[in-house]
Amino acid sequence: MADVANQLDPPALHDRALAGWYRGRPTSVEAGDDLDSILLAQHFCNFNLWNLEDEARRTDVDDGFIARIKRAIDRWNQKRNDLIERIDETLLAQLADVDTSRADQHSETAGQMIDRLSILSLKIWHMGQVAARPGDDALAAECAAKVVVLQAQRADLGACLQRLLDDFRAGRRFFKVYRQFKAYNDPRLNPALRRGR
């Protein structure tokens, strides 16, 4: 069995990816069979969602532009949720030999925690960019202080993820894959989409 708990470092992976993606934005990041590539593909969804959410708040464009952005957000969010589930499936496959018959269930999955770490990495990156931007010392100081808080929050969450994986490997705690079953993209389940057909 792979030593998952000692190999996984999502914040470092996320930060390295952001540094590269903001230098030269890739058109796609696809998940392979290995866990790191799945984490990167999931992080790329959040990267795209972050930038689309910024665009969705513009007031200098027509409603058609906003509608296209909102539809793109919907597609990326579906992919993001699918990849959270895939992270959990991959981790659980790597931990399949662990006896969890006496373990307590954890309320949040590792994939959900990794998703939150991804979002925190984006917050740290963007807040850090504003903190380093010249021209408004007060805003820079405010954002630098927020970066410190966000880094502490990410470290706390990363430690919680590490404990969950350590506890899983020791048979003390486990998580399951929780299917999101997003209905809004499926015309069979969303009555508004059925009306439009």
Order of helices and strands: HHHHEHHEH
Q: How many DSSP-defined strands?
A: 2
Mean pLDDT: 93
Put simply, the count of helices is: 7
The shape is globular
Query: How many angstroms separate the termini?
Result: 49 Å
Q: Identify the strand order in the major beta sheet.
A: 1-2
- The helix/strand class is mainly alpha
Q: What percent of residues are in strands? A: under 5%
Domain count, please report it: 1
Radius of gyration: 19 Å
Sheet with most strands: 2 strands, parallel
What is the share of helical residues? 55-70%
| Unreliable residue runs | none
Written description of the protein model:
This protein has one domain. It is globular and about 55 Å long. Strands 1-2 form a two-stranded parallel sheet. Helices cover 66% and strands 2% of the residues. The protein has helices spanning 4-7, 10-21, 35-56, 63-94, 110-132, 137-169, 191-195, and strands at 104-105, 173-174. It is an all-alpha fold and 197 residues long. The protein has 7 helices and 2 strands, in the order H-H-H-H-E-H-H-E-H.
Topology:
Layout: H1 4-7, H2 10-21, H3 35-56, H4 63-94, E1 104-105, H5 110-132, H6 137-169, E2 173-174, H7 191-195
Parallel strand pairs: 1-2
Helix pairs in contact: 2-3, 2-5, 3-4, 3-5, 4-5, 5-6
List keywords for this structure.
mainly alpha; 66% helix; 197 residues; 2 strands; two-stranded parallel ribbon
What's the short version?
The chain has 197 residues and is mostly helical. The protein is built from 7 helices and 2 strands, in the order ααααβααβα. It has one domain.
